[in-house]
Amino acid sequence: MTPGVRPLIAGNWKMHGTVAEAAALAGAVRDGAVGGLPADLLVCPTFLHVAGVAALLAGSPVAVGAQDCHAAAKGAHTGDVAAPMLRDAGATHVILGHSERRADHGETDATVRAKAEAAAAAGLTPIVCVGETEAERLAGRAEAVVEAQLAGSLPDGFAGVVAPAGGAGIIAYEPVWAIGTGRTPTEADIAAIHGTIRARLAARFGAAGQGMRILYGGSMKPGNARAILALPNVDGGLVGGASLVAADFLAIARAAG
Ligand code: PGA
Q1: Pocket test for ligand 1, best of 67, 95, 129, 219 (most atoms within 8 A of CB)
Q2: Atom number of ligand 1 nearest to Cα 220
């Protein structure tokens, strides 16, 4: 945790769920958040489910995000979705540069940076993902890879996203080899790389960088969340598999307290 920064627990639902299943999961998260939690909550369904989930969660403390957006505000881009459309549908956040998009769709740091600019211009808070592969970690290059991704993926406006989202952009450190594998880095390794990210953010964005949220992602579960979330400069989690089970997602949020 970073003193004075409220944690964020974000669920990345990836390519899962029917309309009914997305609604049921969102409803269960909303109901579980009644009475207050020690973290802000965000769920990120597929594009198809953003509007329905946002309508269901309107007026609740659970925010809705998307998993990607296009870098253009509109235009001839078959199959893509623009940031202003997501904002209009009720999203407040968007995950960008997830390693699955970098791998499946060839997204580069420059692509991610352009998308983050588009998101901020539309009033969406970007959550920019960075993280090394296992080969990069074994070669001792994890920190260098993450620093290069940060330098290339974050637009200058990352420190101050426009209203209504407000505040600054968010970073998610997700080691590629920890995603969906049940494996996580050691607590010391997580603390070290989050410390490096904090130093980079502070060097580039000053005081705003000191307060930006840095999430950890990769096999976060109820059983390991408390220890991970207690580490310095870990300001929440980006949760994949465990976010598809409302009880597990809520248990992770409670572990932030
Ligand atoms: P996981 O995914 O929690 O299933 O490892 C995290 C992510 O990819 O955001």
Answers
A1: 219
A2: 3
Residue 165 scores a pLDDT above 80: no
Cα–Cα distance for residue pair 69/85, rounded to 1 Å = 9
Q: Rounded to the nearest whole angstrom, what is the distance from the C-alpha of residue 160 to the centroid of ligand 1?
A: 27
Cβ of 136 closer than 6 Å to ligand 1, yes or no, is no
Predicted pLDDT at 157: 85
What would the two tokens of residue 119 be?
């998101």
CB-based contact 96:129 (threshold 8 Å): yes
Residue 53 near residue 23 (C-beta atoms within 8 A): yes
Shortest-distance Cα residue to atom 7 of ligand 1: 240
CATH 3.20.20.70 fits 8-254, yes or no: yes
Q: Which atom of ligand 1 is nearest to the CA of 243?
A: 3
User: Strand 40-44 and strand 8-12: pairing?
Assistant: parallel
Is the full-model pTM beyond 0.90?
Answer: yes
| 29 vs 202: CA distance, rounded Å | 34
Tell me the residue type at 13. Answer: W
252/248 Cα distance (integer angstroms): 6
Rounded Cα–Cα distance for residues 221 and 201 (Å): 27
Angle between the 246-254 and 222-229 helix axes, to the nearest 10 degrees? 20
Q: Does ligand 1 have an atom closer than 6 angstroms to the CB of 184?
A: no
Q: What is the pLDDT of residue 1?
A: 87
Nearest C-alpha neighbor of 217 from the set 109, 85, 50, 95: 95
Reply yes or no on whether 107 is catalytic: no
* Distances 229 to 6, 92, 123 between C-alpha atoms, Å: 11, 23, 28
98 is catalytic: yes
